[in-house]
Give the backbone structure.
Amino acid sequence: MLAHVTVPAVKSPPWRRRHSLQAALLVAVGIILLMGVAPRRNFAYIPPSVAELVPKSAEMMERVAQVVDKVGDRLVTPQDASAMVDAGAMLIDVRTPMQIHSMTEDKSIEKAIIDPFDDWVKYKKPTNAIKYAYEFGRKIIVTCTAGPKSTLAWEFLKEHGIDAYVIKGGFSAWEEAGLPTHVNKFHGYDLK
């Protein structure tokens, strides 16, 4: 009678398993693309250039003119935005601290989070706080001094799958409506 000999199972090295998983993922993505399930883009999005981020520059205003018609019903009045914030929406001032300092004497909308759009463009994505807030069902509202920069921020968020709103007239319209504002206390390093 022959003795039954068990042979120990040979595990493949970790690098081989990792490469097999990567290959399987590539095949899956290829199949999805072939089936046409992947979302279609109507245009190739190009993030704003440095010149397009300069407030009131000709380059910014030209880009805003191309985008503003796409905003549609996502353009809200300061009063509607205030009601949305009271209901839990996240309000984001997309200006840099230096722009807030020089354009509105350090004033911004009460309850607004200062999260410069320039940083989103630099890092090629919106901040995690915005993504998480949106994923958990909070509405996102963007604002700037008068509206152009927040319109570009709206376009950027839309490209990244985040549905947002823009305050018509920005901070200026908010202040004219008599809605609450506050004065920020920036440090010297914020204003560089």
